Structure formats: structure tokens, C-alpha cells
Amino acid sequence: MEKSVAVLGLGKYGRSLVKNLYELGADVLAVDCDEDLVEEHAHCSTAAICANLNNEDEVMSLKLKDMDVVITAMGSNLTASILCVSVAKEQGVPTVIAKTTSDRMSTILKKVGADSIVDPEEEGGARFARVLMTTYLHNCFKLDKNMFMAEMNPKDEWIGKNLKELNLRKKYNINVVATREDKGLLHFVDPNQEINKEDHLLVVMDNDAMKVLM
Description:
By secondary structure, the chain is of the alpha/beta class.
């Protein structure tokens, strides 16, 4: 069953969400006060509506109660974010996610009912810092406060050995989920296959394992 998602605010973050969610098969409602942006995203959303997200009547008219998820993507507009989060929760939306730009804004939006908070700039900076600090990582995504998923090159001492020999789970507390051979597609890992220098490994690890790789 497809998931219905409302993205309120078509800034850079909101636009990216709309396009990617729609491509993934979601039923997407895109909303912004800019008519040009709304028109531009009509082709990559299920419905695109021009509305003033600072106006309670206009937000109420969006019928957010019909959505599985509402995402407020107006990180620079606290007033509109508070209004939209409040209305969405009052209308019984199961999951409301709010974009923020400060700790204070995060605290306020949690108090008015946001189920989850995202700070793309902070998360992006933290991810880039981890990649920058090690020669092995290409991408790194935080799963929670202690766990990460990363795509990485094998360490020199891993090359020519298979995962059974390396026993990375026991030695580093690293779980190899999949491998990518020479920029190809990811595929499930064969524990008996030797690791090559060109391979990329998709791994899940904790903070301690991350520090070992730096």
C-alpha cells in the first residue's frame, strides 16, 4: 500500500523530498505559497497546492488528516512550522516530521507535537566530518545516536581475504551488509569471496568502530 505524504514548504529540502518521495511511489501532496514553485512541482507530485502556511484557515483546508505523514519543511519560518505541526496533530496525522534550523526551534516544535525533528545542515555537516576524517569512508549515514551505516573501501590488510577469515564482527564490531564491485550494483555479500582493492563495502557499525577506522 502506498504511503501518503504531505510536504509543506518547497525550499531546497522540500523540493528534494517531493521529487524523491514521488519517484519512490508515495502519494505526495506538495504545498507552498509560491505559485511558480507549486506549478513547477505539479508533474512530480500527486497534488500541488498553493497555500499560505501562516494562515490557519488555509492550512486547515489542506485536509492533512488524510495523510500518513506530514513534513513541515519551512526551517526558517517558526510561526508557520508551529501552526502546521499543531494542525496536523490535531487532525490525527500519525507521523509529523519537522525541519528545524536551531536547538530552540527543535524544542518548540517537539512541544507542539512533532514526532521527529530533522536538521539537514547539522546532519550533513556531521556526515561530511566523518567522511573527511578517514580515508576509507565514502558515505556515512547516522541511524541513531550510536549506529551508522557507511560505504567504505576495504583497509589494506583486508584485501585478499574473505569475511570469514577477517571476522570483522568480532574484531571491530562491524557488520558487512553488502558489497559493490568496481562501481557496479550493490549485492549481498558472500562470506567466502575474497575482498578486492576496488570493492566497496556497505557496513553497519557503532561509534567505537567508527573511531577505529579514523
